[in-house]
User: Fold this.
Amino acid sequence: MDLKLEVVVVPVSDVDRAKDFYVGRLGFRLDADFPIHDGYRIVQVTPPGSACSVIFGDGLTTAPAGSAQGLHLVVTDIEQAVGELTGRGVDVGGPFHDATGAFHHAGGARRVQGAAPGRPSYGTFASFADPDGNEWFLQEITVRAPGR
Assistant:
């Protein structure tokens, strides 16, 4: 049985502001904007090249706005991605790597500025937040691990 991640719900406080950020700043594709009725609106956007979409809106989750943490977008060139997002007005932190050489710690613990030594696949990150503080990471993957 295949189980494919299709949608991630991101809690936001202002749907139009979030839509402007995800579509206008990040360059995500706008798939749908359904204002069903007062208090219930569904906006779906998809990152370029992704098979998984992001949904936000009104009446979709009880999670507090800004509480999504550790969302990852995979890129093949972290420096290029940071440059493009910064050029679009997104405040991006990084590139950085974890002092352990593995996946990054929560928050800024053990964070070392700059790409991972030798720039191994999976080892270099950058981060940004949407206007509500939902936390996103860019992760550089140039060669996928077997079976991925």
In short: The CA atoms of residues 98 and 111 lie 5 Å apart. Helices lie at 15-25, 78-87. The chain has a mean pLDDT of 95. Residues 15-25 form the longest helix (11 residues).
